[in-house]
Amino acid sequence: MNIKEQFNKIADEYDGNRRKFIPCFEDFYNNTTAFIASNIAEPKRVIDLGAGTGLLTYFWYQQYPNSEYVLVDIADEMLQVAQKRFHGIKTISYQIANYTDAFPINCFDTVISALSVHHLDDAGKARLFSRIYDVLPAGGLFVNYDQFCAGHPDIDVWYNTYWESQLANSGLTDQDIALWQERRKLDRECSVEEELKMLRDSGFRTVKCIYSHQKFSVILAIKKIVARQRRLRECFAFSLNNLRCRNFLFYIKTLRKGGTTMRYGSIYLIVRDFDRSVSFYEKVLDMKVSAVNGKRFAIFQSNGLNLCLMNGYYDDENKEQVLTKGDYWEIYDNQSKIADSANPRKVFINLGVEDLQAEYDRIKELGIAVQLTPIRFIQVFSPYWYFTFMDPDGNPIEITGGYTKA
Q1: How many of the other CB atoms lie within 10 Å of CB of 60?
Q2: Domain layout of the chain by residue ranges
Q3: What architecture does CATH give domain 228-402?
Q4: For the whole model, what pTM was predicted?
Q5: What pLDDT was estimated at residue 225?
Q6: Of 158-172, 202-216, 234-248, 326-340, minimum mean pLDDT range
């Protein structure tokens, strides 16, 4: 069985047995959450990764009933239990999705997860932590309530043996124990120390294990502004009139019409040379690409915003992979033609930095900027300094920021 099948099978009994499986349940869930809440401001939007039946969100909701919550899980039956738990609460929504592929939303200031991340191997954990760091705004919070190994084989035997003895006397049935042993085969535990290092390597500077009881620990990570990463804390600002530029995933505002919530979706750049464009934006944004779908689609995630690249030639070159339904519209569907067309430069990608001169020097030193202007000044309603250059497909990139003229 895979993870989805395993957890759907026990969804209805999941919460009842959770206290028995976790000897330190009250401290792990309730007291640790209360401790965090006593030290942070109220979150605006919380995303719960691997939310299951919504148990962790329940404890956060007790502290912050006015926050918005998005529960994400691959197991639909477990989310059905969560929907029953939170029936009638309009600030809680649900997404059936595999969060290891991509986040179903990218606008949140707090990420929480309980007993889920340990199912990923170390490489998967590292990728997830980097994506979380990239998407969180400055000051954003990640809290992982999880299961860990001891980091030493002998002590790990102590941990596991003692845990098993506690479960044997907890009132769990033989079937409960058998299902737990089957689920344990899916575990890919790391030690607390290893996870702390992964989080620091992903960019987090404030990282701390704030609770630990043998197998169970809670790790907190807070995103701070680092000098070169400040450029992405502001919104990517641009006009929206060019078919060649169709995917920066961003949330400008929520529209409500007839009871339906609508958010702006995504705009992606259709590119000619996929590898060159990925390399270009990795250097300009000073970050690794967050996710790649073959050679077709790439995503750069940062501070709730996505810059995405679409290979304009992929579908034509890989027609055996393409399944379509409905009429073909040349003006929209011929992406090769769009990629080959002249760029009218009606879309400007705007990035903000703290030190404009330092950023100008960095971009110039990279040697990848086409038509790089000097730093210039303009004032219409508001004054600002800026410089401009083009990406490999002729899309203008404008960088603004603080500048003191020599």
Answers
A1: 22
A2: 3-224, 228-402
A3: Roll (3.10)
A4: 0.57
A5: 56
A6: 234-248
